[in-house]
């Protein structure tokens, strides 16, 4: 934990973003080996590309960070439920499940969203609670989510 606390804020988020992107490509590789395609399964894709970009890259990450990471954390913090390990694990499970189930485009996509949601809430928890980056944690996680959605939008 001390290494995480000692990393400067930009390095912490750059390393986290790189790790998440690598995991996305590993998951994509595994799916391609299994001949599972999760591209173009989002119903929003039938709308104009500009609107899809705005909603999925600009608005979506901020709303999802608010709904699936920030609010569950604050609710559980308010009720003193994240003081112990069991509460922290409960936060991770609740946040991750809600995030995954809000992306019901296919089973493969739900699994992908499950792991992304888990990475997001763990990163949010580390940033907010351990590193004490209370204000930066929301916006920097939103930025990471925007970067990931941009990669997905452009099929990179």
Structure in a nutshell:
The chain is an all-alpha fold and 156 residues long.
CA distance, first residue to last residue? 33 Å
Helical residue percent? over 70%
Compute the gyration radius: what is it? 16 Å
Number of domains: 1
What share of residues are in beta strands?
Answer: under 5%
Mean pLDDT: 85
Low-confidence residue ranges? none
Order of H and E elements: HHHHHH
What is the number of E strands? 0
- Biggest sheet layout: none
| Structure annotation, total helices | 6
Category from helices, strands and their pairing: mainly alpha
Shape: globular
Structural summary, described in words:
The protein is mainly α and 156 residues long. The protein has one domain (2-153). Helix content is 76%, strand content 0%. The chain contains 6 helices and no strands. It has helices at residues 2-6, 9-33, 49-78, 85-101, 107-130, 136-153. Helix 2 (9-33) packs antiparallel against helix 5 and helix 5 (107-130) packs antiparallel against helix 6. The longest helix has 30 residues, at 49-78. It is globular, with a radius of gyration of 16 Å. The mean pLDDT is 85.
């Amino acid at each position: 934990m001390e290494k995480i606390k000692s990393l400067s804020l930009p390095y912490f988020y750059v390393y986290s973003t790189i790790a998440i992107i690598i995991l996305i490509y590993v998951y994509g590789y595994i799916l391609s080996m299994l001949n599972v395609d999760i591209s173009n399964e989002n119903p929003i894709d039938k709308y104009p590309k500009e609107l899809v970009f705005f909603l999925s890259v600009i608005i979506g990450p901020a709303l999802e960070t608010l709904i699936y990471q920030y609010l569950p954390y604050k609710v559980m913090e308010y009720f003193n439920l994240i003081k112990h390990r069991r509460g922290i694990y409960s936060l991770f499970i609740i946040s991750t499940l809600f995030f995954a189930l809000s992306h019901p485009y296919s089973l493969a996509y739900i699994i992908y969203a499950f792991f992304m949601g888990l990475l997001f809430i763990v990163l949010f928890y580390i940033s907010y609670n351990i590193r004490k980056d209370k204000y930066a944690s929301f916006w920097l996680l939103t930025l990471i989510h925007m970067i990931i959605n941009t990669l997905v939008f452009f099929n990179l």
